[in-house]
Amino acid sequence: MRTRLLAAALLVLAASGCKKETPPAETPAPAAQPEAKPAVHGSAPVAAPANQVDRGDASTPSRNGDSDRSCVGPIDTAVPKQVTVAGKKAELNGYKLSFLDKDADDQAVFGVLSSINEDTGTNLFNLKRYVEWFKANKAEAIIVDGDTGDSESSIEHSLTVLAESGLPVFVLIGNHECKGDYNDAVLAVQKKFDNVVDLGKVRYVDFDDADLVSVPGYHDPQFVHCPNSPCIYTKGDVEDLKKVALAANDPVILVAHGPPHGQTPNAIDAIEGGKNIGDPNLNSLVADGKIPFGVFGNVKEAGGRATDLTGENVIKENTPSPALYVGVGPADSVPWSMNDNTTSEGMAALLTVKGKQASYQTFRAKKLTEAEKAEAQKMAAKYAPAAAAEADKGEKPAPKDAAAAK
């Protein structure tokens, strides 16, 4: 029987934030509010705060203030606990998870995906495709880099498919999920699987060949799909990670849904039109924390590529590099126009760290055949029967937060 130690430990860590937030009644927007930015990178805008700095490049740095510890866990230690993650021995000490078993090779391989968004049959089928590709390329773990679903049930269904892979699954909240939906869904999956780790609570993961540090949530309140219950990280949360990164004993991979700030239309934070919307404070984290690698889920249309930190140099696939930051692209099967003039119908990435260099590969899903569509319908009926029934009627469930529908 699989151990439930990790799920129990993470349940204690997240207990204070596992209840769903009750959104306040919707009120008319004040007439004097500045005009909202267009949601060109897949996020629903709310009115810009009055103190926002007008930046010609369209970026908004993460701000000062206190974040919600129910979604951005503190960098605090606790009483160390011996746990097992996907059959691997590890120690959980507050924000830090350290794997104790060492493998014989000198590299770390991670399958990475983001922006699943919905638990449609096609999306669930594509998750199965991604897992098969990850395993074929000897991935040691899966990183789910935000926007896992638009409801508690969709998050739970997608994570269940990924958890059934048997690989360690590290999941992060993005700018799409409501905090309560995300927390409850992750805890529900952790009760059934010991291989799911919440990177909102566990902020540092020590593997034998590479280490992860995480920035949960998003930096810009204007681009969230659940404006009454978002997970917004602050500048202080970013600053706290610098010492963690510097103390790491292996090359560090930054895991964040929002990317650092680029300087070119080729950067992984470039929205349609070429403007850069990444968080400049992440650049400071990368520079001061000496973080050579990173994976990022947003901006969707900038995904499917890797660059240096500025975006000046686009790095080709399977090309080892001492500094590499990957835009994962959308796992969602809904067609999405990409900056490279292609159309995504679902994609994922593979990051390989070997010594002091890293390389990446991209998987692009193809349209389903008739036989695959039938299999997708079966998966929808198995994992998400309510959503499948609504899809058959041509309906879509209303979001819990009425403002998220805008």
Describe the structure.
Helix 3 (152-163) packs parallel to helix 4. The strands form 3 sheets. The chain has a 10-stranded mixed beta sheet with strand order 1-2-3-8-9-10-11-14-12-13, sandwiched between helices. Strands 7-6-5-4-17-18 form a 6-stranded mixed beta sheet. A two-stranded antiparallel ribbon has the order 15-16. The protein has helices spanning 5-14, 121-136, 152-163, 179-192, 235-246, 280-288, 370-383, 385-392, and strands spanning 81-85, 88-93, 96-99, 107-113, 141-145, 169-172, 196-198, 204-206, 211-215, 252-256, 293-296, 305-307, 314-315, 324-327, 336-337, 343-344, 347-354, 357-364. Helix content is 23%, strand content 20%. The protein is built from 8 helices and 18 strands. Strand 17 and strand 18 form a beta hairpin. The protein is an alpha/beta fold and 406 residues long. Mean pLDDT is 86; it is low at 1-56 and 397-406.
N-to-C terminal Cα separation, in Å? 45 Å
Strand content: 15-25%
* Continuous helix count: 8
Sequence stretches where pLDDT stays below 50 over 5 or more residues: 1-56, 397-406
Can you tell me the overall shape?
Answer: globular
Order of helices and strands: HEEEEHEHEHEEEHEHEEEEEEEEHH
Helix content: 10-25%
User: What is the number of beta strands?
Assistant: 18
Compute the CA-based radius of gyration: 20 Å
Report on the biggest sheet.
10 strands, mixed
What do the pLDDT scores average to? 86
The largest sheet has its strands arranged as: 1-2-3-8-9-10-11-14-12-13
Which class best fits the helix and strand makeup?
Answer: alpha/beta
